[in-house]
Known about the structure:
Oligomer: single chain
Largest sheet: 3 strands, antiparallel
Strand content: under 5%
CATH topology of the largest domain: Four Helix Bundle (Hemerythrin (Met), subunit A)
Mean pLDDT: 90
CATH superfamily of the largest domain: GntR ligand-binding domain-like
Order of helices and strands: HEHHEEHHHHHH
Number of domains: 2
Structural class: mainly alpha
Radius of gyration: 18 Å
Distance between the termini: 41 Å
Number of strands: 3
Number of helices: 9
Low-confidence stretches: none
Shape: elongated
CATH class of the largest domain: Mainly Alpha
Amino acid sequence: xxxxxxxxxxDAIIAGKFAPGxxxxxxxxxxxxxxxxxxxxxxxxxxxxxxxxVHEPHKGARVPLLDKADIEDVYTLRVALETLAARTAVxxxxxxxxxxxxxxxxxxxxxxxxxxxxxxxxxxLRFHDAFYQAAHHDRLSVAWRTVRSQVAxxxxxxxxxxxxxxxxxxxxxxxxxxxxxxxxxxxxxDAVRAHIETAYQRLVASYD
Length: 208
């Protein structure tokens, strides 16, 4: 039950069903989800650990208000993690890893064709999940999971993907995968850094 409640609340926050800054009342959420306040309380605590909920003394939980400084924090950390993943994956990636990356890339292209914003975000994140998995570095994967939900919130909370950006976004991921296949470490690290920097600039521009 707790895991189900956690997944529902996580998805709702990332999808924008709760407004930035909105209070999350345990009693109201328990009634909406048909559960007791215990699983709600535990789930909100877990989401706070993921950075999707902010707890304030005497006020309770609320959805965070992301500003440019928050975006910069998330994306500078992401650069550090993902460039390490690139260096390690070049040495350790296996056939199954490439299959997972290919599948996520195919889903990303299909989501763009349908104009499915949530599908785009999900496929984008699954591509990067597979990228980290290709590094076969357990502690690095744990570090990615701690920031993953915040990346998802950044991606989905700002409408930064347009029809004209389809080829750019898909081509960037194709390029990353091609460089990983050829085990081109230096070029892959540079491409990962450029890819994340481009995503960061799109997000920051959406605040102007």
